[in-house]
Specification:
The structure is a homodimer.
Chain A: H1 4-7, E1 11-15, H2 24-34, E2 40-44, E3 50-51, E4 54-55, E5 69-72, H3 79-89, E6 93-96, H4 107-122, E7 125-127, E8 133-136, E9 143-146, E10 157-161, H5 164-176, E11 183-186, H6 195-204, E12 210-215, H7 221-231, E13 237-241, H8 246-256, H9 265-273, E14 276-278, H10 281-293, E15 302-306, H11 309-321, H12 331-340, E16 351-352, H13 359-371, E17 377-383, H14 390-403, E18 408-413, H15 420-428, E19 433-434, H16 437-455, H17 483-495, H18 503-512, E20 520-523, H19 526-536, E21 540-545, E22 558-562, H20 565-578, E23 585-590, E24 596-605, E25 609-616, H21 619-622, E26 627-631, H22 636-645, H23 649-653, H24 663-679, E27 683-693, E28 701-702, E29 705-709
Parallel strand pairs in A: 1-2, 1-5, 5-6, 6-7, 10-11, 10-12, 12-13, 13-14, 15-16, 15-17, 17-18, 18-19
Antiparallel strand pairs in A: 3-4, 8-9, 8-11, 20-23, 21-22, 21-23, 24-25, 24-27, 25-26, 27-28, 27-29
Helix pairs in contact in A: 3-4, 5-10, 6-7, 7-9, 10-16, 11-16, 12-13, 13-14, 14-15, 17-18, 19-20, 22-24
């Protein structure tokens, strides 16, 4: 069902409308009138009477016409009865501003359940409760169904924000920068109409060119991801997650009553579906404005022009630090600039056109960079010298901007009063203009992040004909996948109510998915260990095997580097004595020695799937936290992106004269793990730690696998 | 000599004054008049005549009165003659706006030398050339000796900027935020009056409360550091270095003609002398304003108050990410807040006073945090609800601010038109107010960085009685320093014109400074290696020793892990054969096996001293670039700060169940190295790589020392 009843209502009623100034019930009524709502407004209050010149109805059922949308602004315990009445009246959508629901816990949770059930019964939709409301500035609707105070003027940027405060701050900033907005929604508890649903509606709204999305806690990450993935190729979504630090997350939790796991999930979700992520509201607003006026850059190669040294250098620093590149100019560009600029000008990237540059020089430089095939975007620094025809320079920008196929971003450093005309021409031409080189460069970098997201093809995940031993088809990767064998292992462990798979079970699971692992065998007695070792081959690692001993290393249950039978037997006898108090056996495992220690893991996240982790092992994980994450299902491109995004990636390529690792093999292990956990949602955690990653031609193997199950199928 | 003639002139002449609009010679004349210069202005131009109502003199000598300060705005080749005339006239200071000197290379360099020599002869000072000029807004002077266009209004922030463009951008921002400035200086080539000298002048200016310093390339880092160190305890210096990336540094180089080594020197210089470093002009301006109005926080513990969830969370995230902490509130604070706020309020840090909070609630919360002994600064989020007496809230802030001993920073989120009174009260009270929680938190964090710098005592470097073997005094550290022995080693190597010390020499140098190193002995033949090994003890490392083989490892000239004489002899014979083409001997060295690999190094920097590097060795240095730097002389506190600032510091403390290292021993090695290179400036580079850092009680030793000399004493 479309959300038109919410965003394009023909009539709005306010249950709890009031003639007392400074009340929410009065403010909403007033806002609807003040901002020129094109439909009808019906105040409702059991006291009746008038608000100004408008008659107040004693109940919603007393309203003589059909009502699309109803605001409910009464005490929380009275809300269910009002919802019921609205249902009977045939109302299509409700905005429940009232607080005191899920966010307060206890009775509030029950109250919220009750109103959701009632609304479902009547086929009504609820926005809120505990929310501000919505706005739609479309002149044919002009609905300000919200109790806040910021002016509404039409624009092409729409805002969805979980926090009303953030929505307000963003809205104020857009207004101050002379830009309006299109639609605005701050859904509070979002008990029915959800953020993904709002996103979908705005994605389909032709008047919305850019969507700003603020998130405090992700309720339906998978759905958000699916919807956002469809929008991003034709419309940017600029996202911000707050509560990134554990202190911030605690504040979110006390604020929304939601459970927040302070982790990287949101960032990974944003990345997977192409939402451009921000941690700064101002940069977010400025980027939204820029993308509402200019095309997204097709690549990260920026050309910079400046008439002032210092700010030109700052733009350069900022572009580079934000991941853009400043390529050399093409020979024909240089040739042309040499002819067009004075000899003291710097014909390089950045181009220094000198403080004396007027319309002719700026026109030549901007035009040349727009034509240079090696440049994806042009960043213009322009400080306004008193001896230059600055308005003429601005008109040159305007002219070139009209036919430009690449984005132009301006940094206009000036006294806004004395150079008002110049600024006006630049802005009128749809060229975003910033007063600081830092902001100009950061906005361009953010626009580029969208440009790259937009055209980034991650490809589909290997679509997986996983077959049982009887099936003849090959799996998506080389090496068959035998799902039936894996199913048997997991069912058996679940039947035995075991949380962690045994070493033998883990080995069987890895084998079924052709994930290469250290050879392993089990033994019941020290004597059997020798047989086991003959199977796996020396040197070996010996581990005690007992359900009672989960942290084997810490308990002294692991002996490494056993080179021969004598050493093995001695070690096995010692462990046998040490753990005599608990039932135990032994694990004898091939000792891996060559290769870099890596970590590959998986963790299930509610309503999402599994997070897949990839990083350098040992100290790099524990001290440097150098881990990249992805979300199942994973494509090969995504796995490559993960591998490229760790700080220690040079080690994979071979640093300090050492050989690089077999990246293809590592990527294959990551993909097979992603497939495994996708096939078996009951696997809640996997830790391959360490994986020994060897150079090409040598075996890369999982040395230790810890696999955790839930009891649900 | 004071710079009063420059900043507080009684009379200013302009050589090259012009009546043609849009020329620099006209603009400077006009600016002096427009901005109300309190002294006399004398235009000078060989053409004579009038500019407006002012008589133009045909030469500076024709001016009938004494002239303090002269602008020179004529063609570069005419400048020397003008300088000479000014000298004869008895002028005290010159501002040479004209370009075409050192920055263009070649003849320009000669021209610049010439004018400096001439000025010295006459006892005149030069500001510039290739510069904008200066301003002093002190109402008793009001001198706008500059050709730029931004308004001048009195304030307490002074600006020194190498880049005129950056100076302008900063100045415009201060003006736009409703703040003036005190003094302004953009010295261009700074051929005579230098940035450190300007800094010193502003440090002594009672009207300057905060100094903004922009640097592109550091000409006199040691002097800057000495002067800044004296200013920082009583006045903040906020610094910004541009050209941080290699692309940016290239742009600096093409811009100023200076040689820029793209490195971390400036950051380390800033840190050593307490200059608070910025990479963002806006944050720099906002922090300058805040510090001109509020005291610096005494510590990093912030208390946050909010009436809106989302922005409160953002403030929290930003404070934590900027290194501040949000401690628990004191019991008495909580007790008081429980009594003063509604039950739904959050009594924690951040304090959520709820959207309904009025003057009483805000007053209680701000007052309580100001009194809490565990809180160093208070950050107030205030979104202005229409149903609250917002002006009353602001007046409460005003009242509390008057007696506050701690800084108050405000984030006032509002519609500036409708809540103008509220904003006015807050700003009038000297409380800086930001529209974004991000900026408010970042400013407070930057203020805190200054607060910590201000009171940070690094202590003196160990003051060094280094003595020769005959002297009885102990060195500053345990273990005597024998400077005479070191002198002999270095003189011998210099006499032999050797760039790198031999292994034996390096060992002797370390021994003289009691820097523990792996035992080492040299041998001339494979057979002698066995004797050498008996001295150092097995296992040993064998290295070829030849001036022709600088990169021993890469050339295959190193064999490690030799456990006995047989292995050693075999290896020595093999190396002997391999390097038969060059004269060579052998180095036999104790093989170190326990401990973490560290890197400790030194590098001389012109006009500064030595940079000392400390980091985790191997992959951490080469891949993660995890190195901390300091500048000689180093104090113990500074070495501790270096050790604490590396990302992998947890490894020093003992990560992954391993023991930590002997930090005191490592610190001692760093201090001894700092002493060594300070005693011998001829040492240009030292690389202790690796140092094996062992736990306390075990020996920590330098495994390999590479020491490079210059030929100068």
């Amino acid at each position: 069902m479309s959300l038109d009843a919410l965003f394009r209502p023909h009539s709005v009623a306010i249950i709890g409308a009031s003639d007392r100034k400074l009340t929410i019930g009065n403010r909403i009524f007033q806002n609807l009138l003040d901002f020129g709502f094109k439909g009808k407004v019906f105040p409702v209050n059991p006291k009746g009477g008038m608000i100004g010149e408008t008659k107040v109805f004693e109940s919603i059922t007393a309203v003589p016409e059909h009502v699309d949308l109803v605001h409910i602004v009464i005490k929380n315990t009275f809300v269910p009865a009002a919802v019921d009445e609205c249902g009977k009246k045939g109302v299509k959508a409700l905005i429940i501003n009232t607080a005191g629901f899920k966010e307060v816990g206890g009775d509030g949770i029950e109250l919220e359940k009750k109103i959701v059930e009632a609304a479902r019964r009547y086929g009504m939709r609820i926005f809120g409760p505990n929310c501000q409301g919505i706005m739609n500035s479309d002149p044919s609707v002009s609905v300000y169904a919200n109790f806040t105070f910021t002016r509404m003027s039409p624009g092409s940027i729409s805002i969805i924000a979980q926090s009303g405060g953030v929505a307000e701050v963003v809205n104020q900033r857009l207004a101050e920068l002379g830009h309006g907005f299109r639609m605005y929604a701050s859904p509070g508890n979002a008990c029915d109409i959800s953020i993904p649903e709002l996103l979908e509606y705005l994605g389909n709204d032709p008047g919305t060119k850019v969507i700003i999305l603020h998130i405090e806690s992700l309720a339906e990450p998978r759905r958000l991801m699916e919807i956002a993935s469809r929008i991003v190729p034709h419309k940017p979504i600029l996202g911000m997650k707050t509560g990134r630090t554990s202190e911030g997350a605690r504040a979110v939790s006390s604020h929304t009553g939601g459970l927040v796991k302070q982790d990287t999930t949101t960032e990974v979700v944003f990345k997977k579906c192409g939402i451009v992520s921000f941690s700064d509201e101002d940069l977010l607003c400025q980027t939204a404005i820029a993308l509402s006026m200019q095309p997204a850059p097709a690549g990260s190669r920026v050309g910079i022009i400046t008439n002032t040294g210092g700010p030109g250098i700052i733009s350069t620093d900022e572009c580079i630090e934000a991941g853009l590149s400043l390529p050399d100019l093409a020979p024909q560009t240089k040739e042309f600039l040499k002819k067009s600029l004075p000899p003291e000008a710097t014909i390089a990237n950045p181009v220094d056109v000198l403080a004396t540059a007027g319309p002719k020089e700026y026109g030549a430089a901007v035009g040349a960079l727009l034509q240079d095939p090696g440049i994806d975007s042009v960043l213009i620094n322009f400080i306004t010298p008193f001896f230059v025809d600055c308005a003429g320079v601005a008109r040159e920008f305007e002219k070139l901007s009209k036919s430009a196929q690449k984005p132009l971003v301006g940094i206009v450093m000036t006294d806004k009063k004395n150079w008002a005309e110049t600024l006006q021409i630049v802005k009128g031409a749809g060229i975003p203009a910033y007063e600081f080189p830092e902001m100009g460069a950061r906005v361009l970098a953010a626009m580029t992040r969208y440009g790259l997201m937009k055209k980034r093809g991650t490809g589909a995940p290997p679509t997986e004909p996983s077959r049982d031993r009887e099936g003849a088809a090959h799996a998506s990767h080389d090496g068959h996948i035998h799902k039936d064998e894996a199913t048997a292992v997991i069912k058996a462990a679940q039947a035995a109510r075991r949380e962690f798979l045994s070493a033998k079970e883990a080995a069987a699971l890895l084998s079924a998915y052709h994930i290469p692992a250290a050879r392993v065998a089990t033994a019941d007695s020290p004597e059997q260990c020798a047989d086991a070792a003959r199977m796996v081959g020396y040197p070996v690692v010996l581990k005690v095997d007992s359900e009672k001993v989960v942290h084997k290393t810490e308990m002294g249950g692991v002996v490494v580097g056993l080179k021969d039978e004598a050493a093995l037997l001695a070690a096995a006898k010692e462990l046998h004595a040490k753990f005599s108090a608990v039932p135990h056996g032994f694990i004898v495992q091939e000792q891996l020695t060559t290769g870099h220690e890596m970590l590959i893991g998986a963790q299930s996240v509610a309503n999402l799937g599994h997070l897949i982790a990839f990083g350098l092992g040992g100290i790099f994980v524990e001290v440097m936290r150098d881990v990249a994450f992805g979300i199942t299902p994973l494509s090969k491109v995504e796995v490559e992106e993960m591998m490229n995004s760790i700080k220690g990636r040079k080690i994979l390529e071979g640093a300090r004269g050492q050989k690089g690792v077999d990246r293809a093999r590592l990527a294959d292990i990551v993909l097979r793990l992603a497939q495994l956990v996708t096939d078996f949602p009951a696997i809640t955690e996997v830790d391959f730690n360490p994986v020994f990653a060897a150079p090409e031609g040598k075996p890369t193997k999982v040395a230790d696998a810890r696999i955790r199950l839930s009891q649900q199928a």
